[in-house]
Write a structure and sequence with these properties.
This protein has 403 residues and is of the alpha/beta class. It is built from 19 helices and eleven strands. It has three domains: 221 residues, 3-Layer(aba) Sandwich (Rossmann fold), CATH 3.40.50.620; 73 residues, no CATH class; 70 residues, Roll (Structural Genomics Hypothetical 15.5 Kd Protein In mrcA-pckA Intergenic Region, Chain A). Helix 1 runs antiparallel to helix 2, helix 11 crosses helix 12 and helix 13 runs antiparallel to helix 16. The chain binds one RNA strand of 86 nucleotides through helix 13, helix 16, helix 17 and helix 19.
RNA sequence: GCGUCGAUGGUAGAGUGGUCAAAUACGACACGCUGUAAACGUGUUGCCUUCGGGCUUCGGGGGUUCGAAUCCCUCUCGACGCACCA
């Protein structure tokens, strides 16, 4: 994407910016559009609390939105929430957090975040994104400052939040620390004096708190733009904090595979949120007939963005050969093994499997396949006698070189 | 501060002296059917095993007992109630 100078195209871009992959705009889309049409450049930001070290496909939605703003010449701030991270965002948490993060942990994670984000947004070159840390101002607030911020909110306002209501009903705790979170996030807007805040729709409440503060403390109208959350029918699969997260740093092949294994209902959202394919074209998609092809296409586009054209092609080819044509993948991890060694021990030792129990389970379930002989290994005491190519489950392959 | 209750496997959540490696659900893994989709069906889901069994787990530490996830003491953490309105 390049900054388009042509006026008409800019108009389209503005339209796209305001509609595509946008959940809601507060106070209204019209107001924001009016300002953008006037040619005014805005200062905006999105915050990320570095409470894990892996960014996933869901974050990519926000990053792409950043990129759009960036390309239109606006000032974009990538805010690392090393201050808010200490409070613990209660968003989506049915229970109070057990663990709160320290400044050190947060700073360390933040480093990884930036590396990962740089795959999508520009931190260098033309109109680069600025990086800021909210710990820089939040940690300096003194009691009076905090009281002053708090004065602009009522308990009723804060407690109205759905998730707090749910917790109240369920008799779950609401930690005051979490309760204050929206205020801190809200103060970020004031500290940076932004015109707009960008974030996932789950962040609406927190972002609106910033709107309130901005109005009272600066007399300024802050816009809020929310992006939809990416998910498939199982809901949280894509952004899940544990398990099969689709990480932005996943290797091309893995990334491709993980996207392919998502539900069909994620295809259109992925095209909308993660690609530049025009909305007109997306509307014409025939999900029923082309689900497979479309999913491959979107997987490929995503891999190109996070890696490159070549690895995307390789990933797709490998996928198609391995899983559709059932061929043995060209590139298999090769490990040397001793003749006479128990295969179970060998696999555990090389961390292909986590325990011998797992091995026994897999053998029993018929999941260990000897590709050289094209038959399952059913003997748990199988010993290595010669070179061996194994398929474990659906996706794990190992080649053992006996010597 | 006082009082009451609670802390169980990846998660939720049973269990309240032996029949508990711990119900059930979800998740995960595997197999079948498929499009590495969904739905559905089946199996597995602490570790080791000569497949007899053994070993380590129920917040930490200590104790009672032939025997503890279960009882007692203590520590840590948490929830709730009371303490204000006289």
């Amino acid at each position: 994407m390049k900054v388009v100078k042509n006026k008409e195209k800019t108009e389209d871009k503005i339209n796209e910016l305001l509609t595509r992959g946008v959940d809601k705009i507060y106070p209204s889309r019209e107001k924001l559009e009016e300002i953008l049409r006037s040619g005014k450049k805005l200062r905006l930001y999105q915050g990320f609390d570095p409470t894990g070290n892996k960014l996933h496909l869901g974050h990519m939605v926000g990053f792409r939105k950043h990129r759009q703003w960036q390309d239109l010449g606006h000032e974009v701030i990538f805010l690392i929430g090393d201050g808010t991270g200490q409070a613990g965002d209660p968003t989506g948490k049915k229970k109070t957090r057990e663990k709160f993060f320290t400044q050190e942990e947060l700073r360390a994670n933040a480093k990884d975040y930036l590396i990962q984000a740089s795959k999508i947004v520009r931190f260098n070159g033309e109109n680069p994104i600025k990086i800021m840390y909210n710990g820089d101002w939040l940690n300096k607030l003194n009691l009076v400052d905090i009281l002053y911020i708090a004065q602009h909110f009522s308990v009723q306002q804060l407690i109205e939040r759905d998730m707090f209501q749910e917790r109240l009903k369920a008799g779950e705790t609401i930690n005051v620390r979490e309760f204050l979170y929206p205020l801190l996030q809200g103060y970020d807007s004031v500290a940076m004096d932004v015109d707009l805040e960008l974030g996932g729709s789950d962040q609406t409440f927190n972002m609106l708190a910033g709107r309130t503060l901005m109005k009272t403390m600066k007399g300024k109208e802050k816009f809020v733009m929310t992006t939809p959350l990416l998910s498939d029918s199982k809901g949280v699969k894509i952004g899940k904090s544990e398990g099969n997260v689709i990480g932005l740093t996943d290797p091309a092949g893995e990334l491709f595979g993980k996207i392919m294994s998502l539900g069909d209902d994620a295809i259109i959202p992925m095209f909308t949120l993660l690609t530049d394919v025009s909305m007109k074209e997306i509307e014409k998609f025939n999900l029923k007939n082309d689900a497979m092809a479309l999913k491959k296409r979107v997987a490929s586009i995503v891999v190109i963005q996070l890696h490159n054209q070549t690895s995307a092609e390789q990933a797709e080819e490998a996928f198609s050969n391995t899983f559709q044509k059932k061929e043995i993948p060209k590139v298999i991890k090769e490990i040397k093994g001793d003749i006479g060694e128990l295969l179970s021990e060998f696999l555990v030792k090389n961390e292909i499997l986590s325990s011998k129990s797992e091995w026994r389970r897999l053998v029993l379930g018929g999941a260990i396949h000897d590709l050289s002989k094209n038959e399952n290994i059913t003997d748990a005491d199988f010993k290595i006698s010669k070179d061996l190519t194994l398929k474990i489950g659906k996706k794990r392959f190992v080649k053992i070189l006996a010597n």
